[in-house]
Automatic annotation (TrEMBL):
Pfam families recorded: Methyltransf_23
A GO term, aspect molecular function: methyltransferase activity
Gene3D superfamilies in the record: Vaccinia Virus protein VP39
Domain of life: Eukaryota
Signal sequence residues: none
Name of the protein: S-adenosyl-L-methionine-dependent methyltransferase
Xref: CDD domains: AdoMet_MTases
């Protein structure tokens, strides 16, 4: 599941792990790193990559302010009570001239051609999942607010790209068809895990109720007649305020290649340190709740 999500997001971003144009970075932080596939692919294996257990919700992180050249988050919807606060902390822990980038999926399901009926089972599942996350105090609908939160945190020159991720291979376009194919596999593979944690723990459904409920949801995921998709939001910003208060010119990526289909996966081979941050309490869950994306 985690592997599929990783490949899916990479493909959606044109084969890239990041957009930030890093030049000889020394310290990178991946908040909520999960399996650590992202930092390992970016920078290799230990000692270049260290995994640190800490709660990013805490006021103080384990590092000094202005430590990181680049802070990255991905798939952290439903992980934090106040993601805006995490971004504010990110601002403080990013070096002047450094970058912060989020790659987050909106839990809302979209459709542009009225093929999605209002009682579509997957839509219902999304609504109930969102309600559960709100009750738990960890909202999932964060992606479309990221740009505003980056700006409110003090970042300037926030550049945001939004990518469409079809639910299944309904599109004709081969690029989107391929995204849909991985997406469908990911949803079918992960649906039970995505559901059990929140529907059982927060809403009190029992396993039998959940299994029965998921039957039409699985059918909906495979339904090519419904042209549904999700959106991935990728705000990216340089932390441009210098210690003396001057601003570096707000350089963003000149041409974001996410829309291109031919960008090869890239890799930083400059021996930077990557820190993968995760929360041990959540990772020891055995029912799959820890890594539930939706
Ligand atoms: C869905 S996974 C995302 C994995 C990874 N970012 C990726 O893209 O594959 C969410 C991760 O966030 C971590 N997490 C959740 N709350 C956290 C917190 N308060 N502090 C640090 N990590 C947290 C969980 O432990 C889990 O590893």
């Amino acid at each position: 599941m985690a592997y599929l999500q990783h490949e899916l997001m990479k493909y959606v971003l044109g084969g890239r792990l990041r957009f930030a144009p890093l030049v000889d970075p020394k310290m990178i932080l991946d908040i909520g790193t999960g399996t650590g596939q992202w930092p390992i692919e970016l920078c290799g294996v230990p000692p270049n990559v260290q995994f640190v257990i800490d709660d990013a919700d805490e006021d103080d992180w384990l590092y000094a302010h202005d430590t990181f050249d680049y802070i990255h988050t991905r798939f952290l919807l439903g992980s934090f009570g106040n993601f805006a606060e995490v971004i504010k902390k990110g601002f403080n822990y990013t070096k002047p001239g450094g970058w912060m980038e989020s790659q987050e999926i909106m839990s809302t399901v979209y459709c542009d051609d009225a093929t999605m009926p209002p009682d579509w089972p997957f839509l219902d599942w999304t609504r109930i999942g969102d309600e559960a996350s709100m009750r738990a105090g960890k909202p999932m609908r964060i992606a479309n607010k990221l740009k505003r939160w980056f700006l409110e945190a003090g970042f300037v020159d926030v550049h945001e790209e939004v990518f469409k991720m079809p639910m299944n291979p309904w599109p004709k376009d081969p690029h989107y068809k391929y995204i849909g194919r991985i997406s469908e596999l990911n949803w079918l593979d992960g649906l039970q895990a995505f559901t059990l944690a929140s529907f059982h723990r927060i809403l009190g459904w029992n396993q039998k109720e959940i299994e029965a409920y998921l039957v039409p949801v699985r059918r909906a995921i495979r339904d090519r007649s419904v042209h549904a998709y999700h959106k991935a939001h990728v705000p990216l910003v340089p932390q441009t305020i210098l210690p003396d208060g001057k601003q570096v010119c707000g350089v963003g990526p000149q041409a974001l290649p996410g829309r291109s289909r031919t960008i090869p996966g890239d890799r930083d081979d400059h021996g930077c340190d990557v820190i993968g941050y995760h929360d041990a309490d959540r990772d020891i869950d055995t029912d799959g709740g820890a890594d539930a994306v939706e």
